[in-house]
Amino acid sequence: MLHARSGALEPGDPVPEPLVMTSAFALSEQPAPDRSYGRMATPTVSAVEARLALLEDAPCLLFPSGMGAYGALMMAALKTGDRVLLLSDGYYAARALTETVLAPFGITMQTCAAHDIATAPLDGIAMVIVETPSNPGLDVIDIAALAERCHAVGARLVVDNTVCTPLLQQPLDLGADAVIVSDTKAMGGHSDLLMGHVASRDAGLMERLHATRSLAGAIPGPFEAWLLLRGLETLDLRLARMCENARAALPILSASDKVSDVIYPAPHPQTSDQGFLVGATFADAPTADRFLEMAGFAPTTSFGGLHSSGDRRARWGDAVPAGFLRLSFGTEPTDRLMADLARALDRA
Fold first, then answer.
1. For the chain, how many structural domains are there in total?
2. In the predicted structure, residue 33 carries a pLDDT above the cut 90
3. Average pLDDT estimate for 206-234
4. What is the pLDDT of residues 229-250, one digit of tens each?
5. 199 and 246 share a domain?
6. Which structural domain range is residue 309 located in?
7. Positive or negative CA dihedral for 98, 101, 102, 104?
8. In terms of domains, do 198 and 268 share one?
9. Which pLDDT score is estimated for 6?
10. Average pLDDT in the 41-58 region?
11. Which UniProt keywords apply (predicted)?
């Protein structure tokens, strides 16, 4: 991906991808798709989608947020009378979107816990949407096995790959029909933009999705897309340190009498790493908050940024203890971060 632009440079070309801030173009008789009107496409958005397509090995479309990607995909792929299966212990906003926005259009929702999805009945389901690892429980779902079950009954499988990113996991290669990623998280990595994308090798689905985006006006601005491109170019380096820091923290958290439970995704051949998220349960909410403050972890509901952060997920209605923290490990120097972690555990 890094050489996708540099390999095609002409003498005098700028090395970084130029930021093209425009919504209007001087039209030819037959304008190019990304040279007609900014609601359809812009050069910067198209350039970033091309880079994402290299990572996903599939066509990609950008959206102004991860939830924007969810909404557009469901609008493009579902119709009145369809049933969609989502995780009961996955990202709550996906369930809220289905219940609040799609239900009045005759789309119904069923839910199932991540650890039960392997045997959940799929008859009559039009679409199955899962996260793996799940958020915040970090349960791992066998994508290939679930894809086989979905396709046997004519259901589409959509995988939210936000936690792993396409560098650690390739759901399309395992049989998923589409992938959603919140690029707000690790893909962008700097905690300064909202963005999401959908990838699929189903040409018909991508055509409908592009029509949905164009007609609904759900395309990101060029500047935000350019910020994502900046993040993509360091994704490999950032992920390596983030995962390293998460693994280094596991024995420290597990050995502390302040932490009653530690969860980390189980190893699975479908992923090249177990990731940078760790779940840790403290005695109560005040103890968890005190730990975050003393460790220097940012108290944020997002994750995947340069800076280590934590979120007490019970506040959002997740079925976890009040003192449960979803910890997202950042790119800080490992030795210093582990020292801060150990000191915070002693004092929390």
1. 2
2. no
3. 97
4. 999 999 999 999 999 999 999 9
5. no
6. 235-347
7. positive
8. no
9. 78
10. 96
11. Lyase, Pyridoxal phosphate
Instruction: Output b/e per residue, 2-36; b: 16+ Cβ within 10 A.
Output: eeebeeeeeeeeeeebeebeeeebeeeeeeeebbb
Q: Are residues 101 and 146 in the same domain?
A: yes
Closest by CA position to 137, among listed 314, 259, 255: 314
Query: Strand, helix or coil at 271?
Result: strand
Domain CATH for 155: 3.40.640.10
What Å distances lie between residue 212 and 79, 177, 217, 261, CA to CA? 13, 18, 8, 44
At 318 the pLDDT is: 92
Sign of CA dihedral 98, 146, 78, 184: positive
Task: Report yes or no: 195 and 228 within 8 Å, Cβ to Cβ.
Answer: yes
Place of tokens 């164009």: 214
Residue with tokens 């395309």: 219
- Asked if 48 and 194 sit in the same domain, the reply is yes
d(CA 32, CA 19): 18
- Distance between CA atoms of residues 3 and 195, nearest Å: 23
Query: Judging by DSSP bridges, how do beta strands 127-131 and 156-160 pair with one another?
Result: parallel
Angle, helices 43-56/222-232, rounded to nearest 10 degrees = 30
What residue has token string 């976890």?
320
Tokens encoding 198: 């959908």
Helix or strand or coil: residue 330? coil
Encoded tokens for 288: 């968890």
Per-residue model confidence (pLDDT) at position 9: 87
Residue 281 and residue 262 share a domain: yes
